[in-house]
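Q: Hi! First time doing this. I have a protein sequence and I read that you can turn it into a structure. Is that right? Here it is:
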Amino acid sequence: MKLNNKLFAQMRAATKKMMRHQPVDTSKVIQDALKNASAMTQAAQEQMRNLSQLQPGAGLTGAGKTDMHDMLAELSRGLGTGVAANEPAPALPGSFSEGSYTNAAGTRSYKLYVPSSYTGRPAPLVVMLHGCTQDPDDFARGTRMNVLAEETGCLVVYPAQSRQANPSRCWNWFNNVDQQRGQGEPSIIAGITREIMQEYAVDAGQVYVAGLSAGGAMATIMGTLYPELYAAVGVHSGLPFASAHDLPSALAAMKGDFQRRHQAGKPIPIIVFHGDQDKTVHPANGDQLMVHARDNTDAMAVEPGHVPDGHAFTRTTHKRADGKVHAEHWVIHGAGHAWSGGSAHGSYTDGKGPDASREMLRFFTTQR
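A: Yes, that's right. Below is the predicted 3D structure, encoded as structure tokens:
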């Protein structure tokens, strides 16, 4: 299959930029970034492999490294499937406004959806952490969480990672400072959460955090570090708490090789979704996320299911002695690295279900 002119232009520009810097083994990075893509992406991958003929072992620095991250981000967004990510989703009657929060760790913008039914009475709040290369608008379209907010009456806030903090807009879940309470990105996300709680009527017992991929890993961090703030956590295609401490260990963890297995604090109420064909974040991460909850509950139940004309799945629940479900693990058979049941109006979505957004909100309502 032939590549389009835009893709060729991106590759030529990236090649020229890299040639002006030290040689770099790019094949591993590019293969990881493009592994789950379509036939066009596979052709792009073959073209990009030519770059790996350069001497391996050296790394890009400075502008070259940023250029490489930017190119990968654009490729991963531009070669997705379904509706173009920048095509408008159907309009909703609520308000979707921008804000910004600053503390000693830095500044991040965010977008807040307030449903049309909001009257000033205490409402639930869901904090949604996007994945790499995404932004709040893209994540809102893909997860359809604003649509569900109209149905359920909850507020939804989407903190935005900046290119200054990470060139591909990934939350820095693998940095030590970003795994500490009161420091780094956790302090900023907690600050955004508290700011919304101050400005709007929010039920303090119904504040939840969820995320995809790097955002899922950060959601686990938030629930672990701030159990008094978040009543439950939703993780889609994410990673366990403190499963890495730098980039090399992050890549290892994404393959299912965990260099850190310690889980701090008491087990958090958690619902996890993971595709068993995920080639970006190994499904073993979903299993590992369940270990802490499983070891601290009294009963387990396994329930197979199937979405009509969609994916089969296995749902495993972990209950406490009082019979209340404390954790759920959904393994989606045949699914890759994408938000289950999401809309093609956003990136990294799989419309074949089950509906992760709806199931997360259902689980959250049981964890007040």
